[in-house]
Design goal:
By secondary structure, the chain is an alpha+beta fold. The protein is built from five helices and eleven strands, in the order E-E-E-E-H-E-E-E-E-E-H-E-H-H-H-E. About 30% of the residues lie in helices and about 30% in strands.
Length: about 210
């Protein structure tokens, strides 16, 4: 199991074209985001280039680099990987950068080093990078549907019967993982495996969302 936090690059539309969104300091010394000076139009997909000023296109070059390397190893050595994270299926406009402290969202430019920074995963990109290595791609599917395929309902019921004093707690935990208004839809699940490996569990009867 591995947990990675990889940086995102944000490109913002201005009246002079697309520019990288950089971090600068204000007059009071506080950190703030602002457009850079170098043109970045060629990094923005053509479908988005005419977006209005202040539109943000987000990408993560390091995620692509890491995924392509991992996929290469799977292609050479065999094996499988499972990606579970919150993310989106198709590229769009808007910032997904978030900062969290004490389970609350905060300004990512305040108190640097004291907050957890995160951004959504582009599942289309990592799926396509795996396909470039000629690997099997299963999913992505919503976490709630995937967990139900694996039998979370039966497992939660068994745990509740075995520990009736914790039944409400167990069912609340199940709901948090599978319900669409909690983690069930926002989180996606993608499996990548060698073609000579069996199809991973949880994906057999589910149609991929891409």
């Amino acid at each position: 199991m591995s947990f990675l936090t990889l940086p995102v690059q944000q490109i913002v539309a201005t009246h002079s074209g697309w520019r990288e969104r950089v971090v600068a300091t204000g007059k009071a010394g506080q950190f703030m985001a602002m457009p850079g000076t170098a043109p970045m139009d060629n990094l923005v997909p053509s479908d988005f280039r005419n977006a209005p000023p202040s539109s943000i296109y987000e990408t993560s070059p390091d995620t692509g680099t890491v995924m392509y390397e991992i996929a290469g190893r799977l292609a050479r050595q065999g094996g499988a990987m499972l990606v579970v994270d919150y993310g989106y299926l198709l590229p769009g406009l808007g910032s997904t950068l978030q900062a969290v402290k004490n389970h609350q969202q905060v300004d990512p430019f305040e108190n640097p080093g004291e907050c957890d920074l995160t951004a959504h995963v582009n599942f289309l990109e990592i799926a396509n990078l795996a396909r470039m290595r000629e690997l099997r791609v299963s999913g992505p599917v919503e976490q709630g549907a995937w967990l139900k395929e694996l039998g979370i309902e039966a497992r939660a019921s068994q745990l509740a019967v075995a520990s009736p004093e914790r039944a409400d707690e167990i069912m609340e935990a199940r709901d948090r993982l599978v319900n669409a208004d909690q983690m069930g839809s926002l989180f996606k699940v993608l499996a990548v495996s060698s073609t000579d490996w069996p199809t991973p569990e949880g994906f057999v009867s589910l149609r991929p969302e891409l």
